Amino acid sequence: MPYLPTKFDMGPLQRKASSHERYDVDRSIYLGKPARPLRRMKAFRNWRGILSFALISMLSVSVVYAAKYLSSGRSQAMEILGAATNAYEDLSQASKSLQSQRFDEAEAQFKSAQDDLSIAQEKFDPYRYLAMLVPQARDAEDVLEGAYLLSEAGRNLASALQFFDDLNLDSNGVNTPSFSQKLEDNLTYLSNSLQLLRSAKSKLSTISDLPVLDEIDKLTVVLQKLVDLEDLFLAFSGDGQKTYLLAFQNYDEARATGGFIGTYGVLKVEDGRIKNLAIDSVYDLDGRINSLIAAPGPFQPQIKRWAMRDANWFVDFSLSSKKLLYFLEQGQETADGVIAVTPKLFEDLLMLVGPIHMDTYGVTLTSANFQQVAQYKSSMDYDRQTNEPKKFLADFAPVLLNRLTNLRREDWYVLFEILYENLQNKQLLLYSKNEAVQDRVSKLNFGGQVMETDYDYLAIVNSNLGGTKTDLEIVQNAELATKIASDGTVINYLRLSRFNTAAEVNRNFVRILAPLGSELIFTEGIEQGPHLDSYSAGLSKDPDLNSWDWGELKWDRVFVRTESGKTEFSFWLNAVPAQKNEVLLVYRLPFEVKVGLLFNPTAAYSMLFQRQSGSKPYEFRHRVSTDLHSVWSTTNVLAGSDLSYSSMSSRDDYWAVMLKK
Hints:
By secondary structure, the protein is of the alpha+beta class. The chain has 3 domains: 31-237; 242-443, 3-Layer(aba) Sandwich (Aminopeptidase), CATH 3.40.630; 456-660, Immunoglobulin-like. Strand 16 (558-563) and strand 17 form a beta hairpin. It is globular, with a radius of gyration of 28 Å. Helix 3 runs antiparallel to helix 4 and helix 7 (179-204) packs antiparallel against helix 8 (212-237). Helices cover 38% and strands 24% of the residues.
């Protein structure tokens, strides 16, 4: 099961997937270069301050420890203090050089600090025996070693950050000579720095009263994000030319993986350069498709034939991507993967570059109006003679890239944070036909996959099948009450509400994904609706849709089937303007939460709640009622007479508890 990098696992609650890929430290590489602070994004914004505080604090602490615990050897202690003080001054100057973009000076100062630290460690060697008798002496030794590792990390970071000073963009993509090779070298430096920071923390964490450990953690988060993004970019760009299908998903018309695909693009890249970018209406492509496949059952009989515009039907993005690529091949050409994006990415980019005036169209695009203007210009207000409704987006793309050309150096990190946040929030989804690359995407949870877990699971997936652009005006809330009975049986009571503030009807097909084997035992508030097979006379049936069709219709209201290794409860939930709909589903989980007397004195319960790709944040509240007592829980759980968790997050959530009698 893919790993959620922001969540906490322990013991029997640990998920199945491995963590981030580790990078071996190449200690033969130490050159120098830094970066710029970000103005908006919290994780990246203060990296210079984090680095400066961490480096200087380390040496300050080492001076204090050396003075306090090595006073028995006065002359040697003074030499140790002198070397440590010199290293402190060098690191202080190195931090200032980083902030001023003087990379060569910073690298030389890091090297000088390392030399002084080596002297201090050498002078300290005769006193290492004290570590066996005096714990504080061992602390002093760990601090000196930790400070040395920290300075090594600084040298690698200085080398890595110069890459961003040389990075250039234009309307044709990256305009940096030998870009891929430079990016690989930069990734090595960043990976070295990251591993050295972790090693430094390992040394310094033996001392409980060092506040600087929090600063090291913050810098580690920043570097991990950069490593993830660069590694992923290298994997996606690969060797030679690559072709990707761009799927522009309109989240105002919800679909399983993010939104209706009215616009698509074909992107050809090589070594970071855009060889060709074509953006067009999905209806033009669908008109060239010769395959005769019946559309998914919920589209029948209004839409009989399946095509690309409705191909992102499956909740798991990798399966939907395979269907998208199939239809692309039927109508045009073969691609190496899929990049799906919602308007949220462009809104964030416009916050970075500022308003963009489109002279030909007489409009100015901003973060606040992009969704509305782009939707209007590409579907309503276009030249009916030329009949090119998506030309507006095709003209906008190179203008946006040119604006990114003029970024200040410090804004590069805002750009990287925007990309990372959109990937985490599933506004930007990736799929590659290359298994190794796809495995990296999945481990980072950037692929919109339905994840595995041994305990409770929930995903609420909406599909707007009425053709109205109304989902951004739907107010949705979800409440889950879990009751653990004395015999270990677990019953879930899911209450879902949707209030339509739009002026049009929202015709919505809902899918609730629960642990495989969950049993539906009661519903309330769900109206009868058509549940048809993915079939139409004279058309063939897709094998994956054929499997999806298998199941049982309960009470003429809810269809129970299997999708992506989960039990799925699907039903219609249509909302007229100014109407609130509320439904209740009660279902029994396929596992028990039991506490034994001798062999199993504790029991585990956890919840993995996956947000729908491209959906806007909404309130989710979860309460667990049990006669058992919590002995451990993740930090996001409130313990009282019941256990409770709530979130307005735009990304996947996870929480867990250990229980005993």
